[in-house]
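Retry 2 of 3 after timeout on previous attempt. Resubmitting structure tokens to design endpoint.
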């Protein structure tokens, strides 16, 4: 049976009274603890950790993480604007995005934001607009690894980064615009196999050697985090120690002592957040069918189960001594709005406390790619409010949305 990460039934009840359900609750203490673990990552010639804010870009979370001394990796010009709005210095922000900036192009790079080109076209555009600048590029090392097909972003089927056989074209573009390649980057997926991640470290170092001004090698994020008690988290110290040796061996044969960067998102946020909700209904499809436990939240608020068949701990807060097997589903009018489904889209059952309508429920592992990656306002359900738990005190950091907030921006032409 799964257990609560940092909440207590009393805190859950107090949050539900304060803002209703569903609602996200983040733990400041847990975020800070994860930051300390990441900052202790073994390294040989200097180290910098970035937070991949796409996991959870809430301004309050950015400030907590900045306060611990981490830098940031943004996935769009709008995430860069978010960081600047939070008062984060531009030189602590790196942009690694699939889309080249447009609306805020001048503003962000004239402010000093670091650019990590993810295609030859991006490098060309950046060179055209900012000749003579320092630049990084993201390499597709030819292989990748993720917890599922949709989170593997390396290898021939991934559009991310510049293919590893095209480094001559990088040099040509850099020379054309007097760009100095000072950093190189690779990110191969989320929930990646540590063995693949280690192998890619060596490939990335070999690529860095082709660019004499490179001083920093960023090996991306992707560290596995156990959300379910049956899963296993990547041991940062163990993979870090291995990669530290790779850097030292590389330096002994090339003389190139590279500074290391990593940029986790999941590791810093996944188990720092919980989604509280309630049992809305219990239905079944007969003796041969299923028993459905219906929650008052769903894919509009937490999309990972529907998108990846990801498993999240689901804990009912009641005093039932009995348990029951349920298919646990969401409240959207979609047959795919299910929390218990396997990768072949087959319904599975979860054994939880025997439920009563109105029971409070906690969904754990909801701090990363949940609020940030949700199908906001699907079925016109309001966006879930968010709370920060600090020193056992709950503070509202995203107010409950009302239907009026959803309708206000809509224009009915006359
Ligand atoms: N750096 C880059 C360039 C990335 O694209 C990502 C994640 C990260 C770092 C951080 O990876 P992490 O440490 O969070 O695994 N939505 C999926 C995860 C996909 C993340 C996409 N990029 C999920 O819900 O698991």
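Retry 2 succeeded. Sequence:
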């Amino acid at each position: 049976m799964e257990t609560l990460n940092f909440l207590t039934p009393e805190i859950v009840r107090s949050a539900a009274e304060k803002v209703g359900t569903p609602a996200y609750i983040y733990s400041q203490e847990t975020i800070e603890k994860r930051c300390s673990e990441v900052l202790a990552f073994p390294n040989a010639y200097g180290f910098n950790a970035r937070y991949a804010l796409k996991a959870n870009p809430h301004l309050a979370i950015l400030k907590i993480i900045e306060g611990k001394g981490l830098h940031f990796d943004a996935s769009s010009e709008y995430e860069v604007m978010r960081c600047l709005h939070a008062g984060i210095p531009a030189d602590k922000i790196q942009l690694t995005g699939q889309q080249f900036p447009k609306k805020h192009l001048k503003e962000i790079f004239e402010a000093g934001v670091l650019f990590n080109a993810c295609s030859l076209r991006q490098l060309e555009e950046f060179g055209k607009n900012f000749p003579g600048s320092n630049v990084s590029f993201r390499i597709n090392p030819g292989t990748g690894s993720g917890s599922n097909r949709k989170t593997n972003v390396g290898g021939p089927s991934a559009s991310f980064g510049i293919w590893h056989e095209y480094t001559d074209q990088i040099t040509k573009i850099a020379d054309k615009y007097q760009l100095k390649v000072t950093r190189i980057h690779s990110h191969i997926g989320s929930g990646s196999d540590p063995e693949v991640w280690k192998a890619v470290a060596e490939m990335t170092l070999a690529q860095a050697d082709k660019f004499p001004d490179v001083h920093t090698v960023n090996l991306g994020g992707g560290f596995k985090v156990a959300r379910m008690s049956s899963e296993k988290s990547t041991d940062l110290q163990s993979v870090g120690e291995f990669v530290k040796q790779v850097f030292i061996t590389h330096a002994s044969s090339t003389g190139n002592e590279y500074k290391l960067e990593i940029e986790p998102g999941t590791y810093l946020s996944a188990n720092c957040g919980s989604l509280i909700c309630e049992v809305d209904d219990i239905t079944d499809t007969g003796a041969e069918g299923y028993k459905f436990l219906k929650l008052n939240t769903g894919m509009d608020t937490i999309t990972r189960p529907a998108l990846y068949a990801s498993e999240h701990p689901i804990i009912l807060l009641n005093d039932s001594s009995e348990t029951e097997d349920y298919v646990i589903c969401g409240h959207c009018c979609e047959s795919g709005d299910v929390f218990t489904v396997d990768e072949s889209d087959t319904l599975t059952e979860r054994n939880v406390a025997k439920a009563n309508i109105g029971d409070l429920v906690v969904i754990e592992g909801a701090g990363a790619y949940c609020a940030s990656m949700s199908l906001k306002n699907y079925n016109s359900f309001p966006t879930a409010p968010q709370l920060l738990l600090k020193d056992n005190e709950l503070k509202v950091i995203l107010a409950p949305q009302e239907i009026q907030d959803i309708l206000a921006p809509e224009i009915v032409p006359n």
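Attempt log closed. Residues 52, 54-55, 73, 96, 151, 187, 190, 220-223, 263-267, 304, 369, 373 surround LLP (CB under 6 Å).
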